[in-house]
Amino acid sequence: MVKLTEVEDEHFTSEKPTPTQKDSLITSDNEEDDDFTDTESEISVESAAEIESENLYERIIALKDIIPPHSRRRIAGTVTGITDFTKSTFSFSGKALWVISTSAFLLGVPWALAFAEEEQYAQMEKEQGMMKGANEMLTPGVDAAAAALGGIQEKQSQPAL
């Protein structure tokens, strides 16, 4: 715990003489000079040097004594809870993204290749059907005669039992 002690400035402890009418006629320049030199003490010079050497982080840390302990605990608990929730959310999201992407590669790529191959076979059959239709249009009846001749030739080439 910090113990505070009051340090009195010598300017306030010395007794001031009561002003007279003659003193009031003195120019204000002398009074300003006296006041300026009197208010500047060793303590104020040292504290100014301390303030200049402090950085922002040290000043913020020093402010924690202003907030009561129960409020500090509540604020610290809230910040810790939010931080933990954020970390766990990012961790879960990263793991879920890893599972989804590896599953897509292991299952999706082979399926896509098989689907493309099947489409290629369907396209080839379609092209062959179009070529067969074009051949029938150019020479009608040739395929029917060739099929009939092929059937006769097959029967002739089979051995008799």
TrEMBL record:
Residues 1-41 are annotated as: Disordered. It is found in: Mitochondrion outer membrane. Keywords: Membrane, Mitochondrion, Mitochondrion outer membrane, Protein transport, Receptor, Translocation, Transmembrane, Transmembrane helix, Transport. Pfam families: Tom22 (PF04281). Residues 15-26 have a biased composition (Polar residues). Residues 29-41 have a biased composition (Acidic residues). It comes from the Eukaryota. It is a single-pass membrane protein. GO terms for biological process: intracellular protein transport. GO terms for cellular component: mitochondrial outer membrane. InterPro entries: Tom22 (IPR005683). Belongs to the Tom22 family. This is Mitochondrial import receptor subunit tom22.
